[in-house]
């Protein structure tokens, strides 16, 4: 996949991050304090990323199918009662996280020997603070990104942020 | 002398900056153009049955060779089917949008077998003619299969770099490609 990722929508994601920090009271979140760190972060957030990632066609097709299946399951679940839907959505949230983790797997460098085993990356923890909210619309956006026949142009702060993080796995030292 | 050298260095730097910015803008432009074209192709392949339901608004500019080939095909069908028991052949009197779309699809496939030679050139021209015709005469084709691909223009001054963003905030442009 060839991709170009526009600058990060900082305001929206910062708001979400603050909410998450408030929820995790007692846990110490690392904050960026020095002006150099702030400047470096602002520069990274404003940078347009260009990149290319390869994926096994079968794995890509399976991932695309699973994403579409999740959207179908969610649509079916919405016809159920509120409690049942709420129960199902907890499972779907995990499914979405799992699917995003699989997308991140395409960006990982191959681990060819035990020597490099410690360089494995936990993709999900990288994007935990910018995961898209669970909704059919967002799942369909995800499916569009994975659609192989035609590319896509999407303006979405969450998927943009997720892909920017994955991009850094591959390209940033 | 030193001042001139400094000025030259400055100009060189700004020229390089401009070149890099233009290359980046061009890559986004052409990637978006590729996406628009493949989207049209997908629409044509997947939604042909829906596009063909709309009537052609005019037959004037339909390439003559296409019209005659479609009528000839009807006559061939007559020869093949007239001896079948219980089959009543109806003379062809008009050309429908579905037929033109099916014809276009068939020559696009045919043209992909050999990408060289006189026949390929003829088919390429015919595809272009049909595309132009359908763009005007079939509103559903115009709506679904005509991806907008504008011309790319470089920016020429360093001051324009700040005004021309490469891509909008939070936008992702991507396309999977086989190698």
Low-confidence stretches of chain A: none
SSE-based structural type of chain A:
mainly alpha
Q: Please report which band the strand proportion of chain B falls in: under 5%, 5-15%, 15-25%, 25-35%, 35-45% or over 45%.
A: under 5%
Residue-averaged pLDDT of chain B: 87
Explain briefly what this protein structure is:
The complex is a heterodimer of chains A (173) and B (179). Chain A is mainly α.
Give a quick set of tags describing it:
heterodimer, A: 173 residues, mainly alpha, two-stranded antiparallel sheet, 60% helix, B: mainly alpha, 2 domains, 7 helices
Question: How is this structure best described in words?
Answer:
The complex is a heterodimer of chains A (173) and B (179). Chain A is mainly α. Chain A has one domain. A two-stranded antiparallel sheet of chain A has the order 1-2. The radius of gyration of chain A is 17 Å and the shape is globular. Chain B is mainly alpha-helical. Chain B has 2 domains: 72 residues; 83 residues, no CATH class. Helices cover 64% and strands 3% of the residues of chain B. In chain B, helix 5 packs across helix 6. The radius of gyration of chain B is 25 Å and the shape is elongated. The N and C termini of chain B lie far apart (53 Å). The model of chain B has no long low-confidence stretch (mean pLDDT 87). The interface between A and B is medium-sized, with 31 and 24 residues. Strand 3 of chain A pairs antiparallel with strand 1 of chain B.
